[in-house]
C-alpha cells in the first residue's frame, strides 16, 4: 500500500510530513459535525414512533401488527426514492439535496400529530421514508468526494456514531416528552413528541443551505495548496483502486452489487427492529415509567458508540472488512436470541439487548467500504443507493413480523429469533461471497467487479 507521501510524489505535490493529515483533520472538523447532526435528527424522527407507540396505539386503537407494518413501510419510500435522490445529488450537489431532504421530512414528522387512522399512519410513514431517502447513501457518497479509501472507514464510523448518539440523546428526550406532556394544551403526549422532534429537522434544512459545501474545490476555508493536495491524493487513490464500474447500467449489471445488496438486506434487519421495538422490549422487562424507559434505552447506544468507533478504526488499521462485518452480525444475532431466552431475567435480557445493538451498529462502517471497491462516479451513486434502498426493506419486514408474532403470542421473542436468523445469514453470505483482501490492497477485501466466493 502506498503511503500519502508516495501519492503526492506521483503528482509533484510533495507535502511536508503530516501536512496532508492536518488537511484531512481540518476537513473532518468542518463537514462531519453537520452531517452527524443531520443524521441524528433524521434517526430520531424515524424511530420516535417506538416511544409514541407506548400511548398512541391505545388512543387510536391500532393493533401491534398495524404498528409494525406502519413503522416499517417507511422503508418502501426508501426503496423507491433513494436512487433518484443520489443521482440528483450528483447533479445538483449535497447542499441543495440535504436541505430538501431535511425540510420535507421535518414537515412530515410534525404532520404525524394529526394521524387518526391506520391509512393516515401508513401514508405519512411512507412519505417520511420517501423524503428522507437519499440522506444516508448521500452522505456515504459525499464522503467519497472528500476522503480517500484508506481514511473513509473511520469517517463513516464517525458518521455512524450519529446512530447511537441519537439513541443516547433521543431516548431520554422522547421518554421525558412522553412523561411530561400528557394532556398539555389539549394534545396527547405522542402528538407533542412529533412536534418537538420535527422542528429541529426543518431548522437544519435551512442551515444546510448556508454551511454545506459540495466539494473541496468550492471550500473557501481550504487554501489553494490544501485543495491541490487533497485533489491529488483523491486522484491517486482512484488510480490505485483500479478499474471500476462508472455508469448507471454497469452498476446494475454488476453481480457484486446485488450480492452486497442481499448481504445488507440481512445485516440491516436488526437495526430498525431494535429501534422501533426497543421501548416495548424494555417495558416488557417490567419497567413502567416512560421516562425510565427513555433513560434505559440510551444505555445500549452509549456502549455502541464506543464499539463502532473501535471497530471502524480496527478495520481501517488492518485493511480488513470481511471479518469485522461478519462477526458484528453474529454478535447481533446472539443478542437477539438471548433477549428471548432471558425473558424472565430482566438484567440478563437487558445485557442481551445491549449486545444486539452493539453488534448491528458495529457492522455498518466496515460494510460500507466494500461498494467503493466496485464502483465509481455515477456507478457509485447508483450502487450505494441501490444497496441501501433494497437492503433497508428488511427494516419493513423485521418490525412487521415482530408485531405479527406479538399479536399472536403476546411476546416479541419469536420475531426476534427470526431477525437473529437473518443476521446469521448475513455473516454466512459475507464469508462465502466476499473475497479475502489481496496483499497490498488499498482498502479491504480484494473485490473485483465480479465477486466470486472466498472462504
Task: Give a structural overview.
The two termini are 23 Å apart. Mean pLDDT is 84; it is low at 4-13 and 438-455. This protein has helices at residues 4-10, 19-47, 49-60, 64-92, 94-111, 118-132, 135-144, 149-160, 162-180, 189-211, 224-241, 248-252, 255-268, 270-283, 290-318, 322-341, 346-367, 377-391, 394-409, 413-433. It has 20 helices and no strands. The chain is globular, with a radius of gyration of 22 Å. The longest helix has 29 residues, at 19-47. It has 455 residues and is mostly helical.
Mean pLDDT: 84
Radius of gyration: 22 Å
- Spans of at least 5 consecutive residues whose pLDDT stays below 50 are 4-13, 438-455
Number of strands: 0
- Total helical segments: 20
Tertiary shape: globular
Order of helices and strands: HHHHHHHHHHHHHHHHHHHH
The biggest sheet, with number of strands, parallel, antiparallel or mixed sense and barrel status, is:
none
Q: What is the percentage of strand-forming residues?
A: under 5%
Structural class of the secondary elements? mainly alpha
Q: Report, as a whole number of angstroms, the end-to-end distance.
A: 23 Å
Helix share bin: over 70%
Please describe the topology of this protein.
Elements: H1 4-10, H2 19-47, H3 49-60, H4 64-92, H5 94-111, H6 118-132, H7 135-144, H8 149-160, H9 162-180, H10 189-211, H11 224-241, H12 248-252, H13 255-268, H14 270-283, H15 290-318, H16 322-341, H17 346-367, H18 377-391, H19 394-409, H20 413-433
Relevant terms:
about 450 residues; disordered C terminus
Structure in a nutshell:
With 455 residues, the chain is an all-alpha fold.
Amino acid at each position: 500500500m502506498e503511503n500519502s507521501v508516495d501519492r503526492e510524489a506521483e503528482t509533484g505535490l510533495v507535502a511536508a510530513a503530516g501536512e496532508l493529515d492536518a488537511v484531512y483533520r481540518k476537513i473532518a472538523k468542518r463537514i462531519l459535525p453537520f452531517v452527524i447532526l443531520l443524521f441524528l435528527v433524521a434517526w430520531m424522527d424515524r424511530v420516535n414512533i417506538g416511544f409514541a407507540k407506548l400511548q398512541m396505539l391505545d388512543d387510536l386503537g391500532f393493533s401491534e401488527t398495524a404498528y409494525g407494518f406502519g413503522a416499517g413501510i417507511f422503508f418502501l419510500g426508501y426503496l423507491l426514492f433513494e436512487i433518484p435522490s443520489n443521482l440528483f445529488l450528483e447533479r445538483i450537489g449535497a447542499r441543495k439535496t440535504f436541505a430538501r431532504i431535511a425540510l420535507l421530512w421535518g414537515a412530515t414528522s410534525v404532520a404525524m400529530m394529526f394521524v387518526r387512522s391506520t391509512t393516515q399512519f401508513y401514508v405519512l410513514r411512507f412519505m417520511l421514508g420517501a423524503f428522507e431517502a437519499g440522506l444516508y447513501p448521500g452522505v456515504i457518497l459525499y464522503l467519497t468526494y472528500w476522503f480517500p479509501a484508506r481514511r473513509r472507514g473511520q469517517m463513516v464510523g464517525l458518521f455512524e456514531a450519529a446512530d447511537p448518539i441519537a439513541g443516547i440523546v433521543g431516548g431520554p428526550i422522547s421518554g421525558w416528552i412522553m412523561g411530561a406532556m400528557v394532556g398539555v394544551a389539549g394534545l396527547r403526549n405522542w402528538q407533542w413528541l412529533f412536534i418537538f422532534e420535527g422542528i429541529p429537522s426543518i431548522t437544519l434544512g435551512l442551515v444546510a443551505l448556508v454551511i454545506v459545501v459540495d466539494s473541496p474545490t468550492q471550500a473557501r476555508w481550504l487554501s489553494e495548496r490544501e485543495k491541490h493536495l487533497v485533489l491529488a491524493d483523491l486522484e491517486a487513490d482512484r488510480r490505485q483502486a483500479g478499474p471500476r464500474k462508472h455508469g448507471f447500467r454497469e452498476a446494475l449489471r454488476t453481480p457484486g452489487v446485488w450480492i452486497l445488496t442481499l448481504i445488507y438486506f440481512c445485516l440491516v434487519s436488526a437495526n430498525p427492529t431494535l429501534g422501533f421495538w426497543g421501548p416495548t422490549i424494555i417495558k416488557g422487562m417490567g419497567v413502567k415509567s416512560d421516562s425510565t424507559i427513555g433513560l434505559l434505552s440510551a444505555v445500549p447506544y452509549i456502549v455502541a458508540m464506543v464499539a463502532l468507533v473501535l471497530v471502524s478504526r480496527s478495520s481501517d488499521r488492518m485493511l480488513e472488512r470481511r471479518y469485522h462485518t461478519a462477526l458484528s452480525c453474529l454478535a447481533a444475532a446472539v443478542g437477539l436470541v438471548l433477549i428471548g431466552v432471558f425473558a424472565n431475567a430482566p438484567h440478563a435480557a437487558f445485557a442481551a439487548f445491549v449486545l444486539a445493538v452493539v453488534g448491528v451498529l458495529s457492522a455498518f462502517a466496515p460494510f460500507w467500504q466494500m461498494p467503493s471497491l466496485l464502483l465509481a462516479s455515477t456507478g457509485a451513486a447508483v450502487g450505494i443507493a441501490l444497496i441501501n434502498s433494497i437492503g433497508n426493506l428488511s427494516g419493513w419486514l423485521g418490525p412487521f413480523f415482530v408485531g405479527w408474532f406479538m399479536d399472536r403470542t403476546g411476546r416479541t421473542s419469536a420475531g426476534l429469533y427470526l431477525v437473529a436468523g437473518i443476521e446469521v445469514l448475513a455473516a454466512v453470505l459475507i464469508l462465502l461471497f466476499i473475497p479475502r483482501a489481496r496483499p497490498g490492497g488499498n482498502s479491504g477485501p480484494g473485490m473485483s467487479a465480479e465477486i466470486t466466493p472466498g472462504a
